[in-house]
Amino acid sequence: MPPPEVRRSIKRSAVSDQQRRRELALLRQTQQRSDSQNRARRLASSVFTLSSSSSSDLILPDKDILTRAADSEEHEAHLDESVAPARELNVVQASKLKGREARQWFARQLMLPEWMIDIPPKLDRDWYVFARPAGNRCFVVSSNGTTISRLRNGSVLHHFPSSLPNGSRTRDSSGPASSYCVLDCIFHEPDQTYYVIDMVCWRDYSLYDCTAEFRFFWLNSKLAESGACNSPSTYHRYRFSVVPIYDCNQAGLHAAYSTSMPYTKDGVLFFNKHAHYQTGNTPLALVWKDNYCSQYFLDTDSQGLVPTQQQVVLEMQEDGKLTTSDDPPVVFGSLEVDFIQKSEFRAGNLLRFAIKDESVRVVDGKLELGDLQFISKSNRARAFADSYSKVFFQYAARHSPLKIEDIAASILPNLPDDSPIVDVEMGS
Amino acid sequence: MAMEITQILLAAQSADGQIRTVAEENLKQFQQQNLPLFIHSLSTELSSEHKPPESRRLAGLILKNSLDAKDAARREELTQSWVSMDPSIKSQVKESLLLTLASLVSEARHTSCQVIAKVASIEIPRREWQELIVKLLNNMTQPDSPAPLKQATLEALGYVCEEISPQDLEQEQVNAVLTAVVQGMNQMEHSSEVRLAAVKALYNALDFAQANFENETERNFIMKVVCETAMAKEPEIRQASLECLVSIASTYYGYLEPYMQTLFNLTSNAVRGDQEPIALQAIEFWSSICDEEIQIQEESEEEDTGSSPHSNFINQALPVLVPLMLETLLKQEEDQDQEDGVWNLSMAGGTCLGLIARTVGDTIVPLVMPFVESNITKGDWRCREAATFAFGSILEGPSVKKLAPLVHSGLEFLLNAMKDHSSHVKDTTAWTLGRIFEFLHSASSEYSVLTAANLPRIIAVLLESIRDAPNVAEKVCGAIYFLAQGYEGGDSSSSLLTPYLGDIVTALLSTADRADTSNPRLRSSAYETLNELVRCSNLRETSSMVAQLLLEIMNRLSKTLELQIVSSDDREKQSDLQALLCGVLQVIIQKLSNSDETSSIINQYADQMMILFLQVFACRSSTVHEEAMLALGALAYATGPQFAKYMQEFYKYLEMGLQNFEEYQVCSISVGVVGDICRALDDKILPYCDGIVSQLLKNLSDPVLHRSVKPPIFSCFGDIALAIGEHFEKYIPYVIPMLQGAADHCSELSPDDDDMQEYGNQLRRGIFEAYSGILQGFKSSKAALMVPHANRLLKFIEAVVSDKFRDEEVTKAAVAVLGDLADALGPNTKVLLKDHTFHVELLGECIQSDNDQLKETAVWTQGMIQRVLVS
């Protein structure tokens, strides 16, 4: 007698493989279809440009590289004031630039957080927080079988092989030879590790126009699978690592601020979840520090000492006005014409001044510096003047700093379930 | 006026073949020339009391076949011709059918019931023949109705319920039907024939009784009557009543609480004392209760689904239920091991015990172990077999933590039992070892019962026992299958099983060659176990062994080509063996292509394999065709662009596969292989595309092709478009209307039917994948071609998104195609995307998803849309 239709004997023959083979074949095909469609989606075509959506710059066709590069030499003197033509190149093209052009181009590619001088609303809902690793910000580009990291001023930090896509001269089975990637990192000296704090392009896929939420998500899912997080080896000189990123609720803030990290901390970074990657200064990314989470709470001078008076670096304009690096620039004072002539300053020079505390005023929430005492021309390595928010933050730091308690107080108590809500947690 | 056809109908049953053929031809002509008259004549014949029973019976059968067919397209055609027939003829036919219910000839009555149900299945859902139910009920309530009429009427009511669905009847009609049926079960008033017909009718009417089960009084009445008939003196009535109870157990689980004590008494008496078919139904009742409770538990484990209430019947009955099932295990049949899927008291009891274990988990263990311990050493093989079977049955359900110590201490005993002098005991012991490996052995679990220390002994026993009787050897194959499976995916760089693989493979290959059994099951078990061994092996350690196996299997496959084929039986055997060998090759190809280091092995033998596959195709048997096709798809993927050189030879078989409507699995696999080839060859597939695309279009338009093949065809268009890019342009005028038609069809599918829902999801996904491939393929040069279709596509996406039955894969495909639209068409979609804002909510929802792939796709799509909106 056969069992009823719905009932299979527990002692039936265990093995029935044909259907399984069919299903596995189907699974393989589905996976491969999805892979090839995804590959098609990520191919750099006309749609991906390097510039941010808010910028008016557009990618230029290849044939213009050489003429543009030549142009940039001719107009070298004006590079700092005008939009550098080289800026309009994409990363692949820019990687062919050399020397000064390259430095100038790369110096403008990083997204620069403003300093937190007041607390943005809805911090807990719209922002991420993470501990900033101590070290130099740099822009890391892998392409053509090599990897180059460049500091904020555009100069090369390392030139090395890595496991990033097309980052060394090994066969990279997972992508075309022309593929490249661009990361925003902090190089942490003590463990010789690049901590990736943002992902700008990955395998030709530009993330400039994507929200921070997506970029972090992509970073988290893609970086490890490339092998870049592995220990150093012949074809991978420096380790890359992600940093733990938290939703900026009470728990997240606490984790970023007080939990110990595998790296030395230098302040805390806040990123607005919805913001795109925008080159230059942006209020949608904020940096904040205090003495507890940073050794560099107050600016130091070249000897590493905190000067008694706050110092600022400003850029001298054609008309002698002294401005910040903001866009539009904030004017903090101006130099006398004869002083300029005597000192042989040129427009665009970065000059260091000391501030007299008693002359500083805050009018309608705006900082006014009053008397500026000239100290010296700034270190040549510097590419930019201080930003307004930095000057303000340093001023506040010396007088009435924004405290971690203030930030915590602006965040509503945790949600009822009381779990540390970590929407996107990088690393493990 | 009806035609006289008695003689033709009798001739059609003649022993003389020639007479029969002529008669059949006559009937066919008659049917073709004048269907209404034909049908009328048949019904007249059926209802004429003075005609011979043989001609009446055949008339009824032909009538039934003129209303219904297995094939869906043919059935629809027959339905339409009935619907469009002259109403006066139809009503005469129906009158005759009802009249026949009172016939004195039981065959005529029975056939008429079947035909009535077929007519009802066409007319009642169309709200026609509403008087049918009233007329049937009249037969039941007329005081002078003879018993045969009542019996036939109940039978007809049952068949009608079987043919239609609950929503086709008004509640009043349902009430009347149930009243008539339940009254028909009454012992006092009716003959046993009438009561049996009533119980069988109730079985079919149960699905209609939702409202009546919700009403306590009515429910009590129905349950009381069913329980009474379950104790009737006639065994057929008891069995039919228990079938009703089994059905009630699953359909009305939630209402059973008050009756459980009665039901337990009733079923346990049946299990212990009644005839086997009835005892089996009584066991089935408890298995069905287990099914329900397992399902409720599974549902409540999934989040957010409001699960149905759990009554814990099994837990409550456990102390009495488990001993009841254990008793059945001792009622084995002498030769039960010689037949696969044998069903008797012991099998049903063990199966139920296994379900109980899955329902209650750990608590079953102390109830079963004393039985195991006291019987496993007894002299009677029945005791030892039952003890082992009991132990094997409860290995799924209780926690590993609870079971592992028992298995640890019992393992050596079981290994020794593989030398028991009873073949039954060895069979069940090998099966139990397989269950242990299946549920208690995993390379990554802390409680795994297999250790480096006991593995050598286990392997030694298995390799010795695989040479035992064929039924034992087959169970040993099963044990090895799960043994290998447990070592899959262990993190360590090395698998404990690796050192033994060589010996195991050798043993399996010789088992496949055993000549001491005519049963093909052992051979297929051996090869399929080999497949699992390859799948689960640690490739770093075994690549050379797998390569060696590849050569051996190729060698065996080439030998099948030399077999002497005299009879169709020979052909079938050759084909079965080729299927198994192609299966192994498929698994090996897929395994070796997983890593760069080993994929070169495939390239090395690709030419030889391809020649073999082509030769196998040349043998032309569909099963082989299917397995060889599967293997070939894996080969195409593994070899990549160099597959191009085989295309010319292979193309005709691919075309044959795509044309194989009858065996839709073959067709479906061939469609999948087109996708593999597209990905392997990219635009090198171009020369074959005209042929492939036109065949696929033909398939889509064909009503005969099984519908499950259609969604993969749409996905396949996407594969082709992605592979050949701008060259897909010439197919657009044909493919787009197909996609649009299918999209419209999706909205017409009934959402009440689970199968249709699933089909709808597959279809939607296929359509989206087609659009995705086309959009991405056109992105760089021909995107403008898709601008005119964007609006309609977007509306379709919106419609799908608003469907609450869409599954996650459909959602992902919808989100992806939305991004593709924005990506490929860019600013052209700006206005559309501003007009259709559903994407905002959709993407928001998907970005919150736990499914990383869905989230990733949604974020990508959001990026694409934002880019368009700011442009």
Shape of chain A: elongated
Give the mean pLDDT of chain B. Answer: 91
Radius of gyration of chain B (CA) equals: 32 Å
Q: Percent of residues of chain B in helical segments?
A: over 70%
Oligomer: heterodimer
Rounded Rg of chain A: 26 Å
How many β-strands of chain A, per DSSP? 19
Structural class of chain B: mainly alpha
Mean pLDDT of chain A: 78
Summed up, the helix count of chain B is 41
* Count of alpha and pi helical runs of chain A: 10
Say how many strands of chain B there are.
Answer: 0
**For the largest interface in this structure, which chains are involved and how many residues does each contribute?**
A-B, 44 and 82 residues
Overview of this protein structure:
The complex is a heterodimer of chains A (428) and B (871). By secondary structure, chain A is α+β, with helices and mostly antiparallel strands. Chain A contains 10 helices and 19 strands. With 871 residues, chain B is mainly alpha-helical. The termini of chain B are far apart. Chains A and B meet through helix 1 and helix 6 of A and helix 16, helix 18, helix 20, helix 22 and helix 24 of B. Chain A: InterPro entries: Snurportin-1, Snurportin1_C.
Write the layout of secondary structure elements.
The complex is a heterodimer of chains A (428) and B (871).
Chain A: H1 18-42, H2 65-74, H3 91-94, H4 99-107, E1 111-115, H5 123-126, E2 127-133, E3 136-143, E4 146-151, E5 156-160, E6 181-188, E7 193-202, E8 205-206, H6 212-222, E9 239-242, E10 246-247, H7 250-258, E11 265-272, E12 280-288, E13 311-316, E14 321-323, E15 331-334, H8 337-343, E16 350-355, E17 361-363, E18 366-368, E19 372-377, H9 388-399, H10 404-410
Parallel strand pairs in A: 1-12, 7-9
Antiparallel strand pairs in A: 2-10, 2-11, 3-4, 3-6, 4-5, 6-7, 7-8, 11-12, 13-14, 13-16, 14-15, 16-19, 17-18
Chain B: H1 6-11, H2 17-33, H3 35-47, H4 53-65, H5 72-83, H6 87-100, H7 106-123, H8 131-141, H9 147-163, H10 171-184, H11 192-205, H12 210-214, H13 216-229, H14 235-251, H15 260-273, H16 276-301, H17 313-329, H18 345-360, H19 365-375, H20 381-393, H21 400-417, H22 423-440, H23 455-465, H24 470-486, H25 498-512, H26 521-536, H27 539-560, H28 568-592, H29 596-619, H30 622-639, H31 644-659, H32 664-681, H33 686-701, H34 710-724, H35 732-748, H36 754-778, H37 787-801, H38 808-825, H39 830-835, H40 838-847, H41 852-870
